[in-house]
Write a structure and sequence with these properties.
- With 448 residues, the protein is α/β, with parallel strands linked by helices.
- Among the domains are: 213 residues, Aspartate Aminotransferase, domain 2 (3-Layer(aba) Sandwich), CATH 3.40.640; 99 residues, Aspartate Aminotransferase, domain 1.
- It is built from 15 helices and 15 strands.
- The strands form 4 sheets. The protein has a 7-stranded mixed beta sheet with strand order 4-10-9-8-7-5-6, with helices on both faces. A 4-stranded antiparallel beta sheet has the order 11-12-15-14. A two-stranded antiparallel ribbon has the order 1-2.
- Helix 6 runs parallel beside helix 12 and helix 7 runs parallel beside helix 8.
- The termini are far apart.
- Bound molecules: pyridoxal-5'-phosphate.
- The site of pyridoxal-5'-phosphate (PLP) has 12 residues, from helix 7.
Length: 448
Amino acid sequence: MIKSPRDYRTGSQQKKFDTMKLSRRNAFKKISLGLAGVPLFGKSLNDIPAKEDLLKWQEAFSKDRTTDEAYWEKFRGEFYDIPSDFINLENGYFGVHPKPVHQSYLLNIEKVNRFSSQYMRTDYVHDYREIMKSLAAFSSVHPEELLITRNATEALNILIQGLDLQKGDEVILNRQDYHSMIETFEMLEKRIGIQLKFIRLPLVPKNDEEVLELYTEAVSPSTKCVLLTHMIHLTGQIIPVKKIADALRPRGIEIIVDAAHSFAQVDFKLGEMGADFVGVNLHKWFSNPLGAGMLYVKKGRVRDLKPLFGDSNRPKDNIHRLGHFGTLATPIIMTIPSAQEFNQMVTIPAKEKRLRYLQKYWTAEAMRIPKVVITTPTAEAQSCAIASFYIEGMEAKDIVHRLYEQFKVFTVIRQLEDRQVVRVTPNLYNHTGELDTLLEGISTLAKL
Ligand SMILES: Cc1ncc(COP(=O)(O)O)c(C=O)c1O
């Protein structure tokens, strides 16, 4: 029975706790005793991998498993609780969190509710510091450069509305940037009179230099800021952020990076993007429960941002000056170490390779089907899990509807400038058999 807040420690702290307090085999199972029998979509919470098993999986990931379907099938059974009555290929919205993460989340909810302010005003302060330290190590940055937010939109609003933009200052955007960020800049256009300049990103750029040139040519003496979306949510296209940032920053231009989709999907380090300001999501590819994002501000640059939420007490260089949000859903934050552990077990390079493989598996076939147009670049470094397509002569809403009704494949429509496309996003639990069903659906519809 769980008696004190410390009995709920999860993630990296769990290891210490395990050796101190637990002697039986399955640490995760033991920790779940307080919730034993709680049904989770028809399954018991105890039905999750043991700590020792996680280490075995970690070892297994040291080999290249990219195309080993039997391996991934076992992985799915072990780590995910996925309904079998439809095929979810819409994992771009947010990530299904794996079983150990889910269990940690439930325990954290229970812990906060049971120990309430006694935990929040005492141990949580220490726990939060530990969470940030380890998240910073994972992201190759300093803990004082990170702030947990509720999502990427909040992180990016803190940046966009925080910059000291004046009437007449020019901001460069691209039509495929995320609409919420465009709308925030449009609000500032009306409110303070900044000028917005939109560039047109080619669907399939020849190379990085073509994209770089588009941004460098758009710059004028009034350009003060450029928003770069690392991975376009409509097509999955990856933009060469570092090359663009390296070219523009010496000209005194502020670079804001929207890495909502790329963080923990592709292998890069926050502190190595060449940008001082980055917003990411933790509830997409990092696999944390919904309601977590993160802000990165390079050391020394916090003082250059005006807080979006009033704060007059903290020092000008303290990143928490930008995060005066009020009371937060702390169980979500407390679950970050479990999500991080899962990512470290799989490793981001292995995840990136598998996700890219799944994408190429269906796009390479689909592009051979008459009337099917893939709207995602195929070059290795230009895309990963996400890809989109359309079928000439058929509306995207009909494709999405029929794929679901006839083939039980769930996808989503996205507005790609003046055209609607169907976005397909597999996650680690998807397998090539499901993509074969997608391909069967696409080829059937393309013949209509
Ligand atoms: C590129 C991009 N930026 C920002 C966001 C916003 O993420 P959230 O709604 O979690 O704040 C999304 C969401 O899909 C996105 O795709």
